[in-house]
Amino acid sequence: MSQPLFNPFTDLIFDDHFCFLTGDLTNDSISVFPEWLMNHFKFGDEHIEMLDKSKVYTYADLRLPCSARVKKAFETLDFEIQKAYKKGYVGMASLDQELLFQWTGRIVYGLLYYEMIYERDRLLAKGENFKLSVTLRQRFGYFHLMLQSLIEPISFVGKKPWSIVVFPLKYSKDIFSYRDDTVNLMFQFGVNGFGFIVCLQDNGVLAERHKELLDKIKGHVLHPIQFEELYAKFHYSDYILQYKPEYNIESNEQGIEIAINSEGKEPVFGFWDNDIYAQLLANYWQVYGIEKEDILQFQKPVYSFLENPYSKDFIDPESINFPF
Q1: pTM check: above 0.90
Q2: How far apart are CA 288 and CA 194, in angstroms?
Q3: Which of 151, 173, 238, 264 makes a 20 to 30 Å CA pair with 203?
Q4: Taxonomically, which superkingdom (predicted)?
């Protein structure tokens, strides 16, 4: 390609007049959360807090400036996701993972965009400059480049830069649940019929780490308490992952090719601290009245609804009595 693509993390450009994806001048915008999703579950007027809890928006308030072609591309993507959504688990599981990456990436990037704006404005009000570490600039810059695959001839060669797992899931009708971690680029989504976990830039490492458990889950319709536990395992694994994804990026006449740099250091996981993990899991299980002290008891294995702690057999979701 003749010119490098827009990277807002080079000069930290987050402005209402520049398209978030291309950098083009614009007066148009698109919602961070797809409008069909907000309308279906009626959460547009509900409140969402920024990371430090001091800034509150409604979901409908969150909008990304975008050019006409970016808006059209996301509207087309939303249509494809909505079609799959109506078919439940079968429809979502049959989607090309790149589409799920782009769709969830738009939400996670949108939330990250607002975190960047909030932090920039907070620091400017104090007379301080807004800065990001080199590591975060690089991580978010790679993520932004990959998200541009929606509108640019960008292809992923070989192993994909993400982990995406989709499961049948039993929730009460019209319940919608999601969690995100914008710094670590993770997303969890659950409704009646299916749920999925997306790690947007782990190079597939987390799915590989939990492959044995994921294989046990196949063929089962998860109870929500199991789905929350699975995300806790992914989330904590990401927390202790000592690994910096690196990529080989090449431009040619056809576009840009992104391949994982396999010559870098192999993924290494730090010490798994059951005390920290139990606290994280308790945060997810609090709706069931399960506390950290219930999960981690003296001289007992960590409480689990996914595997029998002694035999490691998968626990039948139908045997779980908690409501869904």
Answers
A1: yes
A2: 20
A3: 151
A4: Bacteria
Rounded Cα gap, residues 3 and 256, in angstroms: 11
Q: 103: buried, middle or exposed (CB in 10 Å: 19+, 13-18, 0-12)?
A: buried
Pairing assessment for the beta strands 193-199 and 255-260 based on DSSP bridges: unpaired
CB-CB contact of 214 with 108 (8 Å): no
Nearest to 148 by CA among 1, 304, 323: 1
Model pLDDT for residues 18-33, shown as the tens digit of each residue:
999 999 999 999 999 9
For residue range 50-96, what is the model confidence (pLDDT) as tens digits?
777 778 899 999 999 999 999 999 999 999 999 999 999 999 999 99
Contact by Cβ (8 Å): 190, 177 = yes
Looking at residue 307, what DSSP letter applies?
A: B
Please state, in angstroms and rounded to a whole number, the distance separating the CA atoms of residues 222 and 93. 15
* CA–CA separation, 179 and 228 (whole Å): 10
Closest Cα partner for 210 from 170, 168, 241?
A: 241
Q: Which two tokens stand for residue 194?
A: 């299916």
**Which run of H or E residues covers position 8?**
helix 8-11
